[in-house]
Design a protein that fits this description.
The structure is a single chain. By secondary structure, the chain is α+β, with helices and mostly antiparallel strands. The protein contains seven helices and nine strands; from the N terminus they run E-E-E-H-E-E-H-H-H-E-E-H-H-E-E-H. About 5% of the residues have low confidence.
């Protein structure tokens, strides 16, 4: 029959006038192409060509599915990983105080946790040394990450500095340390070992919390000559012209560089 696609069964209606050869009639409002079957479809079956609106809808559906997986709660072997809230420092102090004597029988189930935490002790010491207060700082408050059993505690911060400011701070320390060796105002000689072998560890809340820390070692700045750096030079996270400096991308005014 003229106008019919090749291989069409007898009795099939012909092609509408003006249609290009090889195209099949519309079925359900969509043109059918012969031989355009997808994988697993026998040859000769017809597959509808997706319109622009349907293609956009299909892409939007895939995008929604991808985002729903990305931002959903993470399931780890049936456990939902929830957001952890910041706890007051008294919480970790109480954990350390309660676990001072590990010979108690109620801690016998935590021994495997403590043994497993031993391999992370070097990293914990490294993070502690990284965030140690500088000589010009009286105290430094840091975020910590600790295990609920008190097995290990990490300082959860990265010590980043602005290089010119850090070099200038240590340059003033060089001058002040020379005076310190002469006057001995801030440092005292220690006896070693500081603790006996059988002595229990000191509790921070009972022995150290109420003690006023020693004065920081800071050079006296002149409010006129050092006006550009007078208010923030010894701050842990300095603020220049009302803006906190980004330790990765920073820009210092000429007056500050000249003062350094």
């Amino acid at each position: 029959m003229p106008g019919m696609p090749p291989g069409a069964p007898p009795g099939m209606p012909g092609m509408p006038p003006g249609m290009p050869p090889g195209m099949s009639p519309m079925v359900g409002g969509q043109f059918m192409y012969p031989g355009a079957g997808g994988p697993g479809m026998p040859p000769g079956m017809f597959q509808p060509v997706m319109g622009a609106e349907e293609a956009m809808e299909d892409r939007a559906k895939k995008w929604r599915m991808m985002n729903s997986k990305r931002y959903a709660n993470k399931h780890k072997f049936g456990y939902v990983d929830t957001q952890k809230e910041d706890m007051p420092p008294e919480h970790v102090r109480k954990i350390v105080r309660d676990h001072g004597d590990m010979t108690n029988k109620k801690f016998r189930h935590d021994k495997r946790v403590y043994l497993g935490a031993l391999k992370y002790v070097p990293h914990a010491v490294l993070k502690l040394l990284e965030n140690m207060p500088m000589p010009w700082e009286q105290v430094r408050n840091c975020q910590v990450l600790y295990h609920i059993t008190g097995a290990i505690t990490f300082v959860n911060e990265i010590a980043r500095v602005v290089e010119p400011i850090y070099i200038a701070q240590w340059a003033t320390m060089w001058i002040m340390m020379r005076r310190e060796k002469r006057d001995r105002r801030h440092f005292r000689r220690m006896r070693f070992p500081p603790f006996d072998d059988e002595e229990p560890p000191l509790d921070y809340g009972d022995n150290l919390l109420d003690i006023e820390p020693l004065e920081p070692i800071q050079m006296e700045l002149n409010d006129e000559e050092d006006d550009a750096v007078f208010n923030w030079f010894y701050d842990h996270k300095p603020t220049v012209n009302g803006k906190k400096l980004d330790c990765k991308k920073w820009r210092l005014p000429v007056s500050v560089k000249g003062n350094f």
